[in-house]
Amino acid sequence: MERIWAPWRKAYIRPSKKKSAKCLFCGLLAENKDKRNYILKRSPFSFAILNLYPYNTGHTLIIPKRHVDSVHALSAEEKLDWLDLYEKTRLAIQKALKPHGFNVGINMGKVGGAGVPHHLHLHIVPRWAGDANFMPVIGGTKVISESLNSIYETLVKKLGPKESSSKALHAR
């Protein structure tokens, strides 16, 4: 049997703090530490954030600011803002990383694969021809080719400055 020594993973096995019952996304949003939390852009009703455990380089989440568990629970204004931020983010990823395609989806509920099952979020996963190779199949390891810090800096530049609530709403 081969072993990989990874002492930094101890935090997942024996965390020093008890897990909070609070929503991860709501907590990150409230901290107002966008760079540290990889929040790429805030819009009036939504925000875009890099996935800390990406399937591929540039894997991003689009999340409503209001804590809801379904698209149905969003107001018409929130839906429009959420989808507008999705499209702006997807276009920024397209320009910056030049993927050959995308997987875009919503995992609803724990059984549906949602890692944060009670706060709606949409995944944008850039895809390239050949990005699924032997490593995940044979080695059970996914290779991510660029750091979160590097991707963050690249995408923040493409997405531009934060929108103010009043400006963004009146522009529609």
The assembly state of the depicted protein chains is single chain
In the CATH hierarchy, what is the architecture at level 2? 2-Layer Sandwich
Largest sheet: 5 strands, antiparallel
Tell me the total number of β-strands. Answer: 5
- Span between termini: 60 Å
Structure, explained:
It is a single chain. With 172 residues, this protein is of the alpha+beta class. The chain has one domain: HIT family, subunit A (2-Layer Sandwich), CATH 3.30.428.10. 36% of the residues lie in helices and 15% in strands. The protein has seven helices and five strands; from the N terminus they run H-H-H-E-E-E-H-E-E-H-H-H. The chain has helices spanning 10-13, 24-31, 34-37, 76-97, 134-139, 148-159, 165-170; strands spanning 39-42, 46-50, 60-64, 101-105, 122-127. It has a five-stranded antiparallel beta sheet, with helices on both faces. Helix 4 packs across helix 6.
Question: Short description, anyone?
Answer:
The chain has a single domain (19-170), classed as 2-Layer Sandwich (HIT family, subunit A). 36% of the residues lie in helices and 15% in strands.
